[in-house]
Design a protein that fits this description.
Helix content: 40-55%
Structural class: alpha/beta
GO molecular function, one term: carboxy-lyase activity
CATH superfamily: Metal-dependent hydrolases
Radius of gyration: 19 Å
Organism: Streptomyces minutiscleroticus
Number of domains: 1
CATH topology: TIM Barrel
CATH architecture: Alpha-Beta Barrel
Number of helices: 15
Pfam families: Amidohydro_2
Strand content: 5-15%
Number of strands: 10
Shape: globular
Protein name: Amidohydrolase
Distance between the termini: 14 Å
Keywords: Lyase
CATH class: Alpha Beta
Strand order of the largest sheet: 1-2-3-4-7-8-9-10
């Protein structure tokens, strides 16, 4: 499908979440669950947990109730959401059998949620990054459910996204045209970020930058140029600090050994959501990656998102063609949305 006319394209939010209680019921009480929850508590700190619990409970209707979601979308002026499971559902601590159950349940539940409003919602599933040998099957299962692709974190325990064990997954994602939404959950800086919600404000953009750097410097994007990878949170710190990566690539043989081109050139092979919370940073993201590579994102409905994604985009004062591209034309083409 050719890209729709920018002015006619629907407004598409590619960063929106659904909460799946059935996934949490599946893993509750299993060996390793308590340890995973304790690690999450250490990484975030008690003050953050005291705020996050009530915040999620208050937003539970928007995360689970289709009617409430659609009403909120209407209020925001959003026509279509690309809905992904809450990253809290990754559960990369689970064994192979449980991980397969988690992914299948998440895929089926997300597909069911989205299928109730097919003109308004598209969905993403999950794959078990902790078990690379199962990722292709989980991706195929997600696509079989009618989902547009899958959501992944920035790493799995003991494995970076540059790990050769993921090559079959990247190959399958590329050949199927599946969207891979890179959304970190948790930061390995751990207790260094356990105050003032640094686990999110610093941790998420750091994890995005590290994960994308692994994909660039390792040559994954050279080997899979057709990969449709969307980075949450505007790609974190990387797009605005990519000059340092370019310098290392040209100045040091160890930095430049894995990828064929300057790191900055790969930004135009990736997609980024617009959720950077600063109009000046958003303008720089558009400059660095290209207006055709930035997609509207809100992190619906969490408090670290934006209640007015179109307004946040408008505040960047982009040229009208760029505004329309980010607002929906780019995502419409990526998701192959038919115009009504």
């Amino acid at each position: 499908m050719t890209a729709p006319a920018a002015s006619a394209a629907p407004t598409v939010d590619v960063h929106a979440h659904v909460l799946l209680p059935e996934v949490e019921a599946l893993v509750a009480g299993l060996p390793g669950h308590g340890e995973a929850r304790a690690l999450d508590a250490r990484r975030n700190g008690p003050a953050a947990l005291a705020v996050s619990g009530p915040m999620v409970r208050e937003r539970l209707p928007r995360l689970t109730d289709l009617t409430v979601r659609l009403a909120a979308m209407d209020a925001q002026g959003v026509d279509v959401q690309l809905v992904s499971p809450s990253p809290s559902h990754y559960h990369y601590w689970t064994d192979e059998e449980t991980a397969e159950k988690v992914c299948r349940l998440a895929n089926e539940a997300t597909a069911a949620h989205c299928s109730a409003a097919p003109g308004r919602l598209r969905g993403l599933g999950l794959v078990p990054l902790q078990h690379p040998g199962h990722t292709v099957r989980a991706l195929d299962h997600a696509l079989d459910q009618g989902l547009a692709g899958v959501e992944i974190s920035s790493h799995a325990p003991g494995r970076e996204l540059s790990d050769p064990a993921y090559e079959p997954f990247w190959t399958r994602a590329e050949e199927t045209g599946a969207i891979v939404f890179l959304h970190p959950f948790g930061c390995t800086l751990d207790e260094r970020l356990d105050q003032w919600y640094l686990s999110n404000t610093v941790g998420q953009p750091t994890e995005n930058a590290v994960a994308l750097s692994h994909l660039i410097f390792s040559g994954v994007l050279d080997r899979h140029p057709g990969l449709k990878l969307v980075a949450a949170h505007g790609g974190g710190y990387l797009p605005t600090h990519i000059g340092r990566s370019d310098h290392a690539w040209s100045a040091r043989p160890d930095a430049g050994a894995g990828c064929a081109h300057p790191p900055s050139s790969y930004l135009r092979r990736l997609y980024f959501d617009s959720l950077v919370h600063d109009p000046h940073v958003l303008r720089e993201l558009v400059r660095a990656a290209g207006a055709d590579r930035v997609l509207l994102g809100s992190d619906f409905p969490f408090d670290m998102g934006t209640e007015d994604p179109v307004g946040a985009l408008r505040a960047a004062h982009l040229p009208q063609a760029d505004f329309d591209a980010v607002r929906g034309a780019n995502a419409s083409a990526l998701l192959d949305l038919a115009l009504s």
